[in-house]
Amino acid sequence: MKGVVKYLKKYTFLIILAITFVVIQAILNLYLPDLMGDIVNKGVSRGNVDYILSVGWKMLFVTLLNVAAAIVSTYFAAKVAMGFGKDLRSHVYKKVMNFSLNEVDKYGVATLINRNTNDITQIQNVIFMMLRMVALAPVMAIGGTIMAISKSPKLTMVLLVSLPIMFVVMYFIVKYSMPLFKSMQKKLDNLNRVLRENLTGVRVIRAFAKTEYEKKRFEVANEDLTSTALKVNRIFALVFPLILLIMNFTIIFLIWIGAIQIDKGTLEVGTMMAVMQYIMQIMFSFIMISVVFIFLPRASASAERVAQVLNEKERIKDVKSPKKLEGMGKVEFKNVTFYYEGGKEPAIENANFEINPGEVVGIIGSSGSGKSTLVKLLMRFYDVTSGEILIDGVNIKELSQKDLRDMISFTPSRPVIFSGTIEENVRIGKEDATEEEIVEALKTAQAWEFVSKLPEGIKTQVSQGGTNLSGGQKQRLAIARGIVGKRKIYIFDDSFSALDFKTDAKLRKELREKLKDATKIIVSLRVATVMNADKIIVLDKGRVVGIGTHKKLMKSCEVYREIVSSQLSEEEIA
Ligand SMILES: Nc1ncnc2c1ncn2[C@@H]1O[C@H](COP(=O)(O)OP(=O)(O)OP(=O)(O)O)[C@@H](O)[C@H]1O
Ligand SMILES: [Mg+2]
Prior knowledge:
This protein has 574 residues and is an alpha/beta fold.
């Protein structure tokens, strides 16, 4: 809990208020049996109706006060717990938003979502419970004992028998349910992960007729969670009757001892009734404390999971005084080597090359050769393991991430489409883009031909993930987003793969004209897409095996020749 408790600090005043009212509630609770004892002793047994009435009114008043105190304290406790949950969620969200891809890879999306929702709810619930019970239970237990002893020390001795029994029972409950509760969070993660994969991959699952298999996978995860939850419930199903049994035996025991004393004339009926109520209150307090003990470990497991995210060291951080760039955006890779976390082979090995401002650069290589990794390094989604990447002679680590990414437009290989209108999706690339600029970008991206045919044009809603668009349409929308703002460097990571050759060629021609002064880095598996570039970088198993124009590489680069001959016919090559 430590890692998250500090976020409670700003609620100190409200916490004090909540606890104060809880204490008032507890004291009023303790007063009621006393009054009741009086009514029986002095009113009922002596037939004094006036006394019964006056103390009766008093009891009613105390009860009303008690209810009021309970409402007020619950209100403050809820305010603290909910406010705390809200704060924590936004802290976690902000933190995750600043994660580099390293950290996102490390956790996985399912658990990050869980930690920011379910885990925080667990903590929030326990804080609410603690604010109510942590003050209520001790005051009632201690106060109840004092009151009971002051009324009849002999009767109070009953506690010496029933409390130890209660302790033993509670000890076993806490002991057995704690680990179960703790493991439930992990199982929930697993369930969410399977669910997420299945929902996002639903088309693939259908296409490969894997529905049955995936159903099983979900059922296994679901079963696992359910069986743990059932175990917990079985414990509780056993426990509550047991507790009731202990309490009822205590009462019987108490009445038995009390009756003997009343018979001897050493005890009054009202006093016995009051002590009985105190003893119930004391035992209830212990149950409340045990309940806290049961829920606390689950919440503290959740708190640990949340704190882990909050305390995650950001591996990619801005330097204290970032440098500003004035130049045109010359890119240099110097001896760059990069390993993914846990990777045995380098994804990029000793890469050396330069990209001059305004150049069109193609990056080609077989699947898995490191093309995407190379451009992700330039975006500083990951930091290089060794070597350096310079822009205008400045190491990109010395720039602010914002400046770096404001300078480069990156269109990833898999287009990401958000729910909203087409216009909103493009506008992500430039917040203050005018409608003309958006249409212009759509035209350059060859997207206008289908957007203009849509019933509401750029105001047409696209669903989350762009499921109501074709693959090529999504790509062109993503390209429009990439080019709507003015940048020094544009990167297209395999962004033309879903386009037919004609559209691909037309798009590249327009990009050349519209983004004349900017550097354009085009990653592709297709020779036709990169062969007209000013410079082509050929990658093979993470290594740069050739740099140059198509002509030059045809002569000097074996890997390039192989790629070309596998894709183009003889006359196209010539
Ligand atoms: N997040 C990651 N964690 C670990 N390894 C990764 C990660 N992403 C890629 N790799 C590995 O790095 C290597 C290069 O991957 P990369 O995505 O750069 O290839 P690529 O050339 O872009 O391939 P493609 O043409 O299929 O997109 C691959 O061997 C891949 O398995
Ligand atoms: Mg790739």
